[in-house]
Amino acid sequence: MKMKRSGLLLFLLLSLQGAMAAGSLVLDPIAEHVAVTHLSADEKIAWELNEVLKPLADGSGSVVHPWVKAGMVRLQGSSPSRDAIRHLLEVAANVPGVREVRSEMSIRPI
Question: Which residues constitute the signal peptide according to the record (predicted)?
Answer without folding.
Answer: 1-21
